Amino acid sequence: MFYDPEDRRIRSFVTRAGRLSGAQERAIAELGPRFCLPYAKETLDFEQAFGRQAPTVLEIGFGMGETTATIAAGMPQTNFVGVEVHTPGVGSLLKLIGEQNLHNLRLIQHDAFEVVTHMIAPESLAGVHVFFPDPWHKARHNKRRLIQSPFVALLASRIAPGGYLHCATDWQDYAEQMLAVLSAEPALQNTAQDYAPRPEYRPVTKFEKRGLRLGHGVWDLVFSKRSNA
Ligand SMILES: C[S@@+](CC[C@H](N)C(=O)[O-])C[C@H]1O[C@@H](n2cnc3c(N)ncnc32)[C@H](O)[C@@H]1O
After folding, report:
1. Residue 105 falls within a domain, yes or no?
2. Enclosing domain of residue 113
3. Which of 45, 134, 173, 220 is an active site residue?
4. Which of 51, 72, 124, 226 is the most buried (most CB within 10 A)?
5. How far apart are CA 21 and CA 92, in angstroms?
6. Whose CA is nearest to atom 4 of ligand 1?
7. Is 134 a residue of the active site?
8. 3-class DSSP state for residue 14?
9. What is the CATH number of the domain that holds 111?
10. Nearest CA to ligand 1 atom 27
């Protein structure tokens, strides 16, 4: 379904049934109650959700969650909230949380636009990660891309002064769109001249390694929230 019958907003995802593996299903049953937070139209209290006070980073569209788990394992002092609509992805990341005994991750299975709008308090995030968002590469689908001005303005409003927005893509024209949109957002400032070197915390994925071997590019963009915004 492309449009929500209620608000007819253009979505950045298509609802897929997706087959769940037995292990993913078990992870959802066993770990879901502890690590998944229900979507609600009310502000999420990070301290309550994590049982501690710590900087909190939001990741949008974590896919199967390998990168998310690796980053969370490497930064135990930071809280991570991962948002994803796809059920097998949620199952897969819950499985990794169990295997790696991670305590600093919480998941919300819902549209990130609504999660950010309703659950994330203004200026509350230390950072936002958007890695390899769906490219929607056909011209008639470009409008579904996540990184567009209104959503970036919304994200910027949720980032604390000095916090950051980190996007990565392997589609050159999407990278160019990201650069144009992020540069035009008055609350954000580029940390690089244009594209940024890959920050060390972002692991190179298998898929990315293969692409790089084939000569494809990957572009990282890291913008920080202005303190006078
Ligand atoms: C191309 S995948 C990339 C996954 C992962 N970040 C990676 O690097 O492998 C994009 C993911 O974003 C999710 N997604 C797209 N729009 C979303 C939205 N509005 N809210 C939550 N997740 C979304 C999709 O379900 C998909 O799993």
Report:
1. yes
2. 22-225
3. 134
4. 72
5. 9
6. 63
7. yes
8. coil
9. 3.40.50.150
10. 63
